[in-house]
């Protein structure tokens, strides 16, 4: 095992416990020291040629650390961490782990990443995504996200486990990369040119897809589990990012847009027929990447509901579910991205006042998360967003937002 993996895990774990109602500034400084040691170890291994899957795991954790709100956060640091992750995964060729498996979905360079439907749409919502095992109650309270992850078959050999680890590593890396491109799109920046952004580089079974070969037939085909659908939505998103930068004719762009629209509808329909709690538990990543403007009003209503649920949760920082949020320094960027997207929607169509209502709904969560996780870069970007929202509200004849309230709620449970 790479030393950087241990150090990176300690760094992120320490940071997640170091909000203003946790370990505080001293914890964040300790997390940064651990992060620096992990990065130095990772670079040393990379430069010496000691590159294996545990180094890729360390790079993934460090990329998540740098995507979080912390005192030393900068766009340059976050970009460097993604580049290291991209280089290591490419060097190990992990995204093509299953290229010789006939059931693996593969995609061409210029086409929409389409996965053919494997079954008709069921008559009513149903699901088989909930893991077949049950974690002890203590484990669930400590790491509730575990209860929403695909199974690990106890009959797998060590080699099988390692291969599935590598698959889930790559799909987790795609989550970070997709979030990076979405943030760039929301704030008008150019995304990094990463290998992970190209769907044609993927020849990989979806998370948990391999389980269909050893377990009873699920209610949903393996390529239509919640985890597979999320992965497909991210592939579709990054393919659109790639297409927007490609030098193609208007006719080719129109054909691509039509195919992308159709695939987005297929993914959304499949998500709608899941009755499990996993999508709600994911909270932030479910449908963001299959949004289209013709469904702007529905999207805004859906996101307002999300914002209100989170705001209600964050107002009482003594519940177990709230600890999931108060220990996640990377969520603040997602909320800010939703505000930026909503402002863009309103600028395109001033009749969409629901977009400004959504911005208002997201302010309280961002205020609280800003108080919990002091970060100069984040606060500067948030101040700019608030100024734009104030101008938009005045122009629309709506009440502008109240001044920011960066007071961390008290908690005795953390």
TrEMBL record:
Signal peptide (residue range): 1-18
This protein's name: Transcription factor domain-containing protein
Keywords, in A-Z order: Signal
